[in-house]
Amino acid sequence: MTQPTPWILGLTGGIGSGKSAVAQHFIDLGVHAVDADHAARWVVEPGRPALAQIAEHFGEAVLLADGQLDRAALRTRIFQNPEERRWLEALLHPLIRQEISEHLARADSPYAILVSPLLIESGQHQITQRILVVDTSEELQVQRTMLRDRTSAEQVQAILAAQAKREERLRHADDVLVNDRDLGWLHTEVERLHRFYLTLRGGQA
Fold first, then answer.
1. Which of 110, 142, 175, 199 is the most exposed place for a label (fewest CB within 10 A)?
2. Does 163 share its domain with 117?
3. Residues that constitute the known binding site
4. Residues 6+ apart with CB under 8 A from 103
5. How far apart are CA 18 and CA 10, in angstroms?
6. Per residue in 23-74, pLDDT tens?
7. Are residues 43 and 26 in the same domain?
8. How many alpha carbons fall within 13 Å on the CB side of residue 191?
9. CB 143 within 8 A of CB 18
């Protein structure tokens, strides 16, 4: 008898919400996970067509000496120019989605997870059957991110402003995990959700 195709859980949350810790515990429980941020890096590795197109469009100045993409240089170019940002997104988003799909297709767990900070904004939620939002107060998000990245409150606020508003994420959520306690409690909650997800067919109760 063939195994049913794994359904896809979208996992998202704002910066500093703890989605990486949540994703890692799901992985520890044997769930196949794909990180959209990793996929975004894979598609611009040297030797991949996207990198050649980016270098052709923006010039060699966006490449490092070793041929890797100079992310900081590219970021500077597109932040000042919305048209250039749209050009880059039009090139990369379909490639990232294809990369994600290929990695999800390798899943051998009953369900697989797509971890993406921009799940809603990028439209990636369209390939998922269920959405889990890791939520926490903005105050906690700022505290945690400042601690983790040794960055200023202003920089964190700027990143928060660029991400989907909390209300928008929660509007798309099938499940919400409020991460405002310790790691032990968080693990217990992930295990509870995991047991529930194993009972689902196609991601819906």
1. 199
2. yes
3. 16-21
4. 34, 39
5. 15
6. 999 999 999 999 999 999 999 999 999 999 999 999 999 999 999 999 989 9
7. no
8. 7
9. no
